[in-house]
């Protein structure tokens, strides 16, 4: 699973790199997740835009959202917290 990790202030938020429209990764080029103005994540396949809270605000999956993943920063490293 690929993970989108985004630093927002002192926090790091994470999402599964899977567009809710068709389940494909968002970018066509490595690390090309954000719009030029940095306000949205963009899906390269059909142009969906997601606000930084993961909500799709434009495109074929409008009203859906990216799957949030629990991330935590420990001693400068980013950890994905998985629970069984
Ligand atoms: S696969 Fe992302 S908008 Fe269609």
Give an overview of the whole structure:
By secondary structure, the protein is mainly β. It has one domain (3-80): Rieske [2Fe-2S] iron-sulphur domain (Rieske Iron-sulfur Protein), CATH 2.102.10. It has no helices and eight strands. The chain has strands at 3-8, 11-16, 41-42, 49-50, 56-58, 68-69, 71-74, 77-80. The two termini are 17 Å apart. The model has no long low-confidence stretch (mean pLDDT 94). FE2/S2 (inorganic) cluster is lined by residues 19, 21-22, 24, 43, 45-46, 48, 59-61. FE2/S2 (inorganic) cluster (FES) is lined by residues 19, 21-22, 24, 43, 45-46, 48, 59-61.
Offer a few descriptive terms:
84 residues; mainly beta; Rieske Iron-sulfur Protein; three-stranded antiparallel sheet; binds FE2/S2 (inorganic) cluster
Give the SSE map.
Elements: E1 3-8, E2 11-16, E3 41-42, E4 49-50, E5 56-58, E6 68-69, E7 71-74, E8 77-80
Antiparallel strand pairs: 1-2, 2-6, 3-4, 4-5, 7-8
The chain binds FE2/S2 (inorganic) cluster (FES).
Quick rundown:
The protein has about 80 residues and is mostly beta strands. The protein is built from no helices and 8 strands. The chain has strands at about 5-10, 10-15, 40, 50, 55-60, 70, 70-75, 75-80.
Please report which band the strand proportion falls in: under 5%, 5-15%, 15-25%, 25-35%, 35-45% or over 45%: 25-35%
What's the total number of strands? 8
Domains, number: 1
Distinct ligands: FE2/S2 (inorganic) cluster
Low-confidence stretches: none
What profile does the largest beta sheet have? 3 strands, antiparallel
| Assembly state of the chains shown | single chain
